[in-house]
Amino acid sequence: MRNNTLFVLAIVSMIFYSCKDTDAQDEPVKIKDTSGNLNISILLDLSDRISPKKYPNPTMEYYLRDVGYINSISEAFNAHIRGKKIKQIDDNIQLFFDPAPLKPEINAISKDLKIRLDKENVSNGRIAELERKYKEEPKKLYQLAIADDHYIGSDTWKFFKTKVNDHCIEENHRNILIILTDGYIYYENSLMQEGNETSYLTPALIRKNGLTTSDWSTKLNNGKFGFIKANDDLSHLEILVLGINPDKKNPYEEDVIKAYWTNWFETMKVKRYEIRSGELPSDADKIIKDFILNKKP
């Protein structure tokens, strides 16, 4: 009788652990978040927002603000690298735009600014070269885009739909995406609408939706206005949006823009995010470096 009981217990045990293994295989693969390694991506909005002719700013041109932001990002990345032991270095910094400009010179600069440092290739000379490139090349990139004077818009929505997972998320890294934008999104080949949700945002759309009065928040929530969800799970990505520059004719424009982005990030389960206005680089420097270097739990 005792032997029969043991036999039954053994069979039950085998079934239990077999089921447990099967369940484990069905669980989604989780990307490890190792905060000691940085994977920084910078997404540029090269729409007409950077045009000094269309949107002049006597204090500082908007493209020069972007250049200043990129310099602060690079300084934070370099400080991170220099604070690590050589054997611990496995860090990336890169720059994107979507859609890609038609000028090959611009794309060549972007390619040159995609840099990976690890224990096999790092040296003081290579770090110094990275610092030089990020101080000089972004300004050349913007000047080329402005001289080309062919602004095709920003397809930020499509970037989140089709590219962000492959380009901006890497295992065993802390993944940070920094978006330089005025907050508006528009690309003529990606204009979609589902109910009151869209893949784009313009001042004209905000006016059309009646989000120009003090009750804009109630209207936005009741009408379910916002961006169409472009991704199901960005829980391994931190995002810093810099440069929000609202249409001055609507006193509530900035609040509406930030609400669109906030709700979008929440829907896509972004791990951590901040959405900031278009401040001068000297004022944004601390914001950028705190975001990159002082990780919050």
UniProtKB/TrEMBL annotation:
PROSITE patterns according to UniProt: PROKAR_LIPOPROTEIN
Name the record gives this protein: VWFA domain-containing protein
Organism encoding this protein: Flavobacterium noncentrifugens
